[in-house]
Amino acid sequence: MDTKKYFNNMRVLLDDYRHNIAEWEKAADKYCEEHGELAAEEWAKENMRPKSPFSPGALNAMRLWEYKEKHGEDEISDAVIIYTSEIREFVSALREAGVESFLLTRSNSMLIERIHEYAKYGCSVDGPAIAVRYHGQTRIEERALRIRIN
After folding, report:
1. How are the residues of the chain apportioned to helix, strand and coil, as percentages rounded to the nearest 5?
2. Shortest CA distance to 81 belongs to which of 52, 113, 50, 37?
């Protein structure tokens, strides 16, 4: 699938979800005003709040792709922290979108653990790379590891 189309479709679904949440919250507030807080709690149990169509890992994949596009970067890089518990969904979303690699720029005490977690979901370290980011007209280069999605 075309990566841009994949993430644009995600954005449309996410925007619809946010609209549905706003409508649900308006209805809950109105019910609370008309019937009281205890009745509104029962209403909320019966009329469950809509759940996000995406996992946190998939949302981060979309956000990082959007960041890359907005800032004219060549590759997705980890501008946000991808928690170990989100890696499976993060990699899955990137794979479904047709992304072949991304740059791992965050080096912290969890780096080795994160690399092993990526490997568990079919990724490998492709080697050292340079992540190029732009802040306005300023070009910033950072050392990175390229993670290949196999």
Report:
1. 55, 20, 25
2. 113
What is residue 52's DSSP assignment?
P
Whole-number Cα distances in Å, 96 to 1, 12, 79, 103, 146: 7, 17, 20, 18, 18
Tens-digit pLDDT profile for residues 48-80: 888 999 999 999 999 999 999 988 888 898 767
In whole angstroms, give the CA distance from residue 126 to residue 129.
Answer: 9
Give me the residues paired with residue 150 across strands. Answer: none
Which residues lie across from 104 on neighbouring strands? 145
Give Dmax over CA atoms of the chain in angstroms. 61
Classified by CATH at the fold level, domain 56-149 comes out as Translation Initiation Factor IF3 (3.30.110)
**Hey, is 127 helix, strand or coil?**
strand
DSSP state of 80: S
Q: What are the extents of the domains in the chain?
A: 3-46, 56-149
Q: What single DSSP character describes residue 129?
A: E
SS3 (DSSP) at 62? helix
